Amino acid sequence: MTVERVTADFWFDPACPWAWMTSRWMLEVEKVRPVDVRWHVMSLGVLNEDKLDELPEEFREAMAPGGWIWAPVRVCVAAEQRFGAEALGRLYTALGTRFHNQDQPRTRETIVAALADAGLPADLVEAADTDEYDKLLRASHKEGIDKVGQDVGTPIISVPGPEGTEVAFFGPVVTPAPKGDAAARLWDGTLLVASTPGFYEIKRTRTVGPIFD
């Protein structure tokens, strides 16, 4: 019997370590279930632009206009526009590996190195310091947020729901990223709760930070 492939839409900001964890789980899910991930950008800068005064100073500076949070995601949008969604996925992996697994600085030089890793031209980095792609970035961000509501962060994942609908969630937030059978079980559970009418939230306090492997 042929099993129908499904698509999971995934919204991320490359600067977010928790989105990185979830994205690595989704890549594992692609290996063990008939699932294709479709990547989209969202922005911690956009998400927090109306509440900068409530953030700790270090995050306030990063997320303010011109802060370093904006540069990587702007380059991601530029890469997608010029080279397509598959290139966006490659660049996300390259950026996330350097930012999170290797703890490299969030600088222009690191972005250029990630572009090389992804087989993309270095001139894409020019998007980092301009608002040329911000309209597209905001539209992609809004698309994800509109599916799940305002009271969320990154990542957002949209999965098949009952009777051909789609259901979007914030998360799942998990560390380390499950692999193999564990990845499959979490995916199956995600589909299970998505198929439950009226299901909204499961949550507990995080007691460990992201574990990169």
From TrEMBL:
Domain of life: Bacteria
Annotated CDD domains: DsbA_family
InterPro entries reported for this sequence: Rv2466c-like, Thioredoxin-like_sf
Pfam families cross-referenced by the UniProt entry: Rv2466c-like
Gene3D superfamilies in UniProt: Glutaredoxin
Name by which UniProt lists this protein: DsbA family protein
Species of the source: Streptomyces abikoensis
Organism lineage: Bacteria, Bacillati, Actinomycetota, Actinomycetes, Kitasatosporales
